[in-house]
Design a protein that fits this description.
This protein is α/β, with parallel strands linked by helices. The chain has a single domain, classed as TIM Barrel (Alpha-Beta Barrel). Helix content is 42%, strand content 18%. The strands form three sheets. An eight-stranded parallel beta barrel has the order 1-2-3-4-7-8-9-12. Strands 5-6 form a two-stranded antiparallel sheet. Helix 4 packs across helix 5 and helix 7 packs parallel to helix 8. It is globular, with a radius of gyration of 18 Å. The two termini are 24 Å apart.
Length: 281
């Protein structure tokens, strides 16, 4: 695994507290490279000093792997330099699109067709060639069904991973959100994912607009059904490094650490169970 344990999204609102002390539960941090590339001045120096002392992974926002516009190779070359400068071992992106002659500021579903599998996989392979490393793609949340669907979301994700020969960044909350919005069994979705390709996971909170409609906000505490789904995921495919996302309504660090510690507790529990099972053959 590129990192170990439980992590937290690095937010500017948390910098003062984190500069003072990083709680033991936080083993690594995540940033969007687009938010920090070319940042200079006092803020850039402050980030550089922190990044030299702690482990980071990168989760991209704007590559638009499924988009119609040409792949942004200039951005990729900047990301490659950024990853190398800060010795960041993992880069992931959303399996979605967010541009069409300009950024749309939302993650939109890709048509779930064989043609789209080949199109997106070719863009992922090109991304990996430029970065000279494997990447992981994240299953995205979405609110309307893909305009064309020849297969289920789980089958589409599996097909892209195989065709592109890349890894999976499994967002457990996104699975739950989509399972409510699009009415499928989240455990069946998790069980259908290729465990050998899962290198990283996300947990987050969301906003329930209605009984059958959830918005993926990253602005609230993780709810019990998503914690239960994370436990099922660890049991099904093994423990993976897992990050808590909190992008809005950010509480004090001490409150976030409680959720990071809950991730760590589930990791220890399921790793111990797996070790015991292995010991007994």
């Amino acid at each position: 695994m590129p990192v170990q344990g439980a992590g937290l999204g690095y937010r500017r609102e948390l910098m003062d507290e984190l500069d003072g002390h990083v709680p033991d539960a936080i083993r690594f941090f995540e940033i969007a490279p687009e938010n920090w590339i070319d940042v200079g001045g006092a803020l850039g120096r402050r980030f550089r000093a922190f990044a030299e002392r702690h482990r980071f992974v990168c989760h991209g926002l704007s590559l638009s792997l499924g988009g119609p516009s040409p792949l942004d190779e200039m951005l990729l070359r900047k990301i490659k330099a950024f990853l190398g400068e800060f010795k960041i071992p993992l880069y992931t992106e959303h399996l979605s699109y967010c541009s069409d002659d300009g950024h749309l500021y939302d993650l939109l579903p890709i048509p779930m067709t064989e043609e789209a599998v080949k199109y997106v996989a070719a863009r992922i392979r090109r991304t990996q060639d430029i970065l000279e490393r494997r990447i992981a793609v994240e299953n995205a949340s979405f609110y309307v069904n893909a305009p064309i669907a020849e297969m289920s979301e789980a089958a589409f994700v599996r097909a892209v991973l195989e065709e592109a020969d890349c890894d999976l960044h499994l967002d457990v909350n996104n699975v739950y959100v989509n399972s409510v919005n699009h009415r499928f069994d989240p455990r069946a979705y998790i069980a259908a994912m290729p465990a050998e390709r899962v290198v990283y996971m996300h947990m987050a909170g969301h906003y329930r607009e209605a009984e059958d409609f959830i918005i993926d906000t990253h602005g609230a505490d993780v709810i019990d059904p998503v914690w239960e789904l994370l436990g099922f995921t660890y049991q099904t495919m093994g423990v993976r490094p897992t990050l808590l996302e909190r992008d809005f309504n950010i509480p004090p660090l001490a409150d976030l650490v409680k959720e990071v510690e809950r991730i760590s507790g589930l990791q220890r529990k399921h790793q111990a169970a797996a070790d015991l099972q292995l010991a007994h053959g």
